[in-house]
Write a structure and sequence with these properties.
The protein is an alpha+beta fold. It is built from eleven helices and twelve strands. The structure holds adenosine-5'-diphosphate and magnesium ion (MG). Magnesium ion binds at residues 40, 218-219, 232.
Length: 344
C-alpha cells in the first residue's frame, strides 16, 4: 500500500495561499503546505492544514493558458461534472466553489481546492482482483448514469497522418535520439496500427457518454474501508464508453508492467457487462483494433519534445515516455488475440 507521500519539493507561493484561504474561507494555514506526489503533466498538489480542516490545493501546470476562455470553461465544466456525479452517488471529489466558480487564478497561476481525502493510491503490484472489480463497477455506474451535459463537445479523436509519423521517426533518427533505433525497427508496426485506428474511428464515434476519462491508479484514492474515491476529473469529457472500460481494464490489470493479468482484465469487462447489461462486441473489436490511437498521439508529442526541448529534465522525461509507450504497445500487440477471446 502506497501512502500519499509528502515532501517539500518546492514551496507554495505564500501570498497565493493567503489569498486562497481568505477567498474560500478555509481558515488560517497551520504550518507550510507540503507537496503531494502523484501529479503528472506539470501540476503540483499541496496539502494544507488550517484550524478548520485539511485541504488539497492543486496548482495547475504553467503551460496551461488561463487566458483562454475555453480552457477556463473546460476546468469549470469538469468540476461541475464531478459534482453532479457525486450528487448521484459516485464517490467523487470536486473542487470547492465560491461565487459560482471553482478555478482561482492568481498572477496567471490556476488553483483548484479540494477537501483533503485520507486515503492511499495503489502501486502497480498492489492491485488485487477485488480492487479491479470495484473500479469496473464504478466505471459501469458512470456509464449507466449517462449524464446529460448538453454543452460538452462530441468525443475528440486525435488523428495524425502516416507521413507525419514517418517524418517524426526520421527526425529522431537524424538527431540520434536514444529511442530512434527502436522506433525505426517498429516503424511498420506503428504505421499499420495508425491505419487500423483511423479505420475504426467512424465506428467508435457511434457511442458516447460523459465520464471521468482517466481512471488510472494515481487518480483513485482508497479509504480505510478499501473503497475507491475518484479524484482528478480534469479529463472528464464525452467519450466512447467501450474504449474507456477496455482501457481502464488494461491499465488495472497491469498492461504497462511485465505482469499483465488476463483473468483480471476479463473479470473487469465481465463486471462492466453485468452492470451495464451488455458490451457491444463490434465496439470491443473496434476498440482493440484502434487501441494504439492514443499511444501514437502520446508518442508523437513526446518524440517532438525529446527532439526539440532544451530543458534537459523535460527531455529526459519525454525520452522515458517514448520508451515506455513503445514497450507497452509492443507488449499489447502480442496480447490482442487473447483480449478478443472475451466473447468466445
Ligand atoms: N482531494 C484529495 N485529497 C488527498 N489527496 C489528493 C486529493 N486529490 C488528489 N490527491 C492526490 O494528489 C495526486 C495528484 O492529484 P491529481 O489531481 O491527480 O493531479 P494531476 O492532474 O497532476 O494528475 C493524486 O494522485 C492523489 O494522490
Ligand atoms: Mg492525476
Amino acid at each position: 500500500m502506497e501512502a500519499v507521500r509528502k515532501g517539500s519539493v518546492t514551496q507554495m507561493n505564500q501570498s497565493h495561499l493567503k489569498f486562497i484561504c481568505a477567498a474560500l474561507q478555509l481558515g488560517s494555514p497551520e504550518g507550510a503546505p507540503t507537496s503531494v506526489q502523484g501529479c503528472r503533466g506539470g501540476s503540483f498538489m499541496w496539502q494544507v492544514h488550517t484550524e478548520k480542516a485539511a485541504y488539497a490545493i492543486k496548482q495547475l501546470a504553467p503551460v496551461i493558458d488561463l487566458k483562454s476562455e475555453s480552457i477556463v470553461t473546460k476546468y469549470e465544466l469538469s468540476e461541475t461534472i464531478s459534482y453532479r456525479f457525486a450528487q448521484l452517488g459516485i464517490p467523487a471529489v470536486s473542487a470547492i466553489k465560491q461565487s459560482g466558480k471553482h478555478l482561482i487564478i492568481i498572477e496567471n497561476i490556476g488553483y483548484l481546492v479540494y477537501p483533503w481525502i485520507e486515503g492511499y493510491t495503489l502501486g502497480r503490484d498492489e492491485i488485487s482482483e477485488t480492487h479491479a472489480i470495484k473500479i469496473a463497477e464504478i466505471v459501469a455506474r458512470l456509464h449507466t448514469i449517462n449524464l446529460s451535459v448538453p454543452e460538452i463537445e462530441a468525443p475528440r479523436f486525435d488523428i495524425h497522418s502516416n507521413d507525419k509519423i514517418s517524418a517524426a521517426i526520421d527526425k529522431s533518427v537524424s538527431l540520434k535520439c536514444p529511442f530512434a533505433k527502436t522506433l525505426k525497427e517498429n516503424k511498420n508496426f506503428i504505421l499499420s496500427a495508425n491505419e487500423s485506428y483511423q479505420a475504426v474511428i467512424p465506428l467508435l464515434r457511434q457511442e458516447s457518454v460523459v465520464s471521468h476519462g482517466d481512471v488510472n491508479q494515481l487518480n483513485v484514492l482508497w479509504d480505510k474501508t478499501n473503497q475507491p474515491i475518484l479524484v482528478d476529473w480534469e479529463s472528464a469529457r464525452k467519450l466512447n464508453p467501450t474504449r474507456e472500460i477496455v482501457g481502464t481494464s488494461l491499465a488495472w490489470s497491469g498492461m504497462t508492467t511485465e505482469n499483465f493479468s488476463l483473468p483480471i482484465y476479463n473479470r473487469m469487462l465481465r463486471t462492466h457487462i453485468k452492470s451495464c447489461g451488455s458490451l457491444n462486441k463490434l465496439q470491443v473489436e473496434a476498440t482493440l483494433q484502434g487501441l494504439f490511437g492514443s499511444p501514437i498521439n502520446w508518442l508523437l508529442y513526446n518524440i517532438e519534445l525529446a527532439c526539440t526541448s532544451d530543458v534537459q529534465k523535460e527531455k529526459d522525461i519525454a525520452i522515458k515516455e517514448v520508451n515506455g509507450t513503445l514497450m507497452t504497445m509492443i507488449r499489447c500487440k502480442r496480447l490482442i488475440p487473447d483480449l478478443l477471446k472475451i466473447f468466445t
